[in-house]
Amino acid sequence: MASPEPIICAEGYLFELERRGYVQIGPFVPDVVLSDPEVVKQLHREFVRAGSDVVEAFTYYGHRTKLRLIGKEHLVENLNRTALRLAREIVDEFPEKNLLLAGNICNTTIYISEDPNSKKEIRDMYIEQLTWAKEANVDYVIAETFSDLGEAEIALEVIKEFKLPAVVTLAIHTTNKTIEGVSVPEALERLSSQGASVVGLNCARGPKTILSLLKEVVQSGRVKCPLACLPVGYSTDEEHLTFQSFSTRDRKYTDLDHHTCTRYEFGDFAKEALALGVKYMGTCCGGAPHHVRAIAEALGRKPISSQFSANLALHFSYGQKESLSHIHPEGTVSKNFAYGEKM
Ligand SMILES: [Zn+2]
Description:
The chain is α/β, with parallel strands linked by helices. The protein contains twelve helices and eight strands. It has helices at residues 13-19, 32-35, 37-49, 64-69, 76-93, 116-135, 149-161, 184-193, 207-220, 263-276, 289-298, 321-324; strands spanning 7-9, 54-56, 100-106, 140-146, 166-170, 198-202, 227-230, 280-282. The model has no long low-confidence stretch (mean pLDDT 95). The site of zinc ion has 4 residues, from loops.
């Protein structure tokens, strides 16, 4: 996993595919992997073109609990194996890029810290998902969006049993702590000392409020392994620490569009994260390919889709006379429409 430059990892498949009409808010189950595999592949491809170094198999919430919720538990193996195959096909599509293929496990929604039966069931779910990931020859495993440190520790333990590198990230809600009440520096220190290759934060918080938490981790000096940071694509602030804080219960996840981050916010995020020493960064829920491209460009890279980064010099009204002289005769460039603009 060692890299002189930060690794960029695009995540946010559930929300992007929801916007495109293939995932349902509420259950959030990735059965699009089986119903419309080409759609999943296309989003992988867009993220790679935007600069992601990782193709993450779309098995997020593709575990037994979630499939049971929609009456499709019998499809769990097929869904996982298909998601891994689709991700591999995209890695193979870009041989010159040396992309990493990541397996993925996540919170199960059934973790109860005092209940050994729930822990056993979770363990078994991770074992089966990682059996399929191992057989697909993944480079490492992303274990993510844990709000309970205890559940993250089970995930890490199982990943280690499979002898795979682990990137473990926590989703921290408005208490600024894990559900058990453990501080973020302590939780990440524990995961690091238990053998994770990279630890950090993802989901729940947008660029600003995730970085303020991560800053505390850096300042504590407690975590020795590389740090990860993958915010959601929504402009959370001191008043709304998480993207869930924006909405009333009846509109949860459905009225976020006007809070969507600009590409500039993700560019600024990348620079700040780099300055903090973050070695693994990307996007989560609400993030889209143009956000990933903004991260890549802020790190000085030129991903494939940079060929379509804005070039207002060629705009018919906002452009520069010299750039447009081959189509506009002298003096006709600026049409000066009353578009209105910020001064
Ligand atoms: Zn997320």
